[in-house]
Amino acid sequence: MRKTIALTTALMLLCVVTAMAQEAIFASNEINSPEINTDGSVTFRLFNPKAITVKVTGDFLKGTSAEMTQDSTGVWVYTSQPLEPELYSYKFVVNGTEFLDPSNIYRNRDIASFTNFFIISKNKEDKGGLYSVQEVPHGNVSKVWYNSPTLKMQRRMTVYTPAGYEDSKKIYPVLYLFHGAGGDEDAWTTQGRAAQILDNLIALGKAEPMIVVMPNGNMNAQAVAGEWSKGMYKPSFMQHMDPPGLATMEESFPDIQNYVEKHYRVFKDKKHRAVAGLSMGGGHTFSVSKTYPDRFDYIGLFSAAIVAGRNVNFMGVNKQTLDSDAELGKQIEALKKNNPKLYWIAIGNTDFLYNVNAAYRSYLDEKGLKYEYFENEGGHIWRLWRIYLSMFAPRLFK
């Protein structure tokens, strides 16, 4: 009898706990956050009746964070000012500790941290529209393993093929697109929204259909963390340097190009090839384009980390170190003789690499290599790099 009572009591307790858990799940699901309002403002909500302080922090704010207020139901609320079309990231700060929004399933990883994001758009051609999935023909994104004899390993890259590629025999131009330090072959398709940008620009007739190859720029790694034999390690900003790879990007780049030109229907001439990248990837673009001056007609440096001069860290690069690099002078002269159609440099006016890029532009002016320069407001952030890709892609292969 006692066993029966005990069992009944346990079952009742289990039902109560289960019901409470399900109620919590449903309560979380019923919270609408973020809610994009008709005027472009955004309302954030978090159910946490026991919290003492709750803030929202994100790149949509002019300051670092904004205080949320609690209503009578225990929900903390904050409504922003109307926002311009853009992709925005945010987190909550509860009692001094950062939390993701449990009501928002849309999250991006940047190195080893996650943020929620949302998109504001007023029409399909504004920035938010370009970054959104629209009702247009879609290209495919593949994770492709290739052999790198130079690095003595199998490696993975992400490849975007435009809508219609699989059903045609057409030959396409190709853009090699490099990520920044701490990133990997997923960075441009997650943080950078590259597939959406290309889909929408092509559908609008603003960009030529092209294949986009996004390699892993960490020369000591095979693929994104957790998806190669090293296991589930925590990625870091400087993972590309410890331990060093067997070769540099420019030394191993032919392995990538050889694979692409063997396995994809791409043109194999200079006027149908482009190379671009951000930050460390801008440095890779700088190095690859000068090492192979006859391979690319389109070159894009986005907030580039320029490396030049003997034993000089990229933060220490200035006009003097550039002038003292005799090998660089020869390479830039060769690049100038090959006369690329577009050498495009872009950077934000508060970027920590601004002075480095200014020194490099001065160097190119003296060498007589023609380039185009774009500067806008902002720092070393993905918001600018998405803009740069949206501006660069329509200039290609015209």
* CATH superfamily (homologous) name of the largest domain: Alpha/Beta hydrolase fold, catalytic domain
Query: Residue-averaged pLDDT, rounded?
Result: 92
Strand proportion = 15-25%
Q: In CATH's first tier, which class of the largest domain applies?
A: Alpha Beta
Straight-line distance between termini: 86 Å
Give me the count of strands: 18
CATH architecture label of the largest domain: 3-Layer(aba) Sandwich
- How many independent structural domains? 2
CATH topology tier name of the largest domain: Rossmann fold
Contiguous helical run count: 10
Q: Which value, in Å, is the CA radius of gyration?
A: 25 Å
Ranges where pLDDT stays below 50 over 5 or more residues in a row are: 1-27
Determine the fraction of residues in helical runs and give it as a percent range.
Answer: 25-40%
Largest sheet data? 8 strands, mixed
Strand line-up in the sheet with most strands: 11-12-14-13-15-16-17-18
Based on helices, strands and strand pairing, what is the structural class?
Answer: alpha/beta
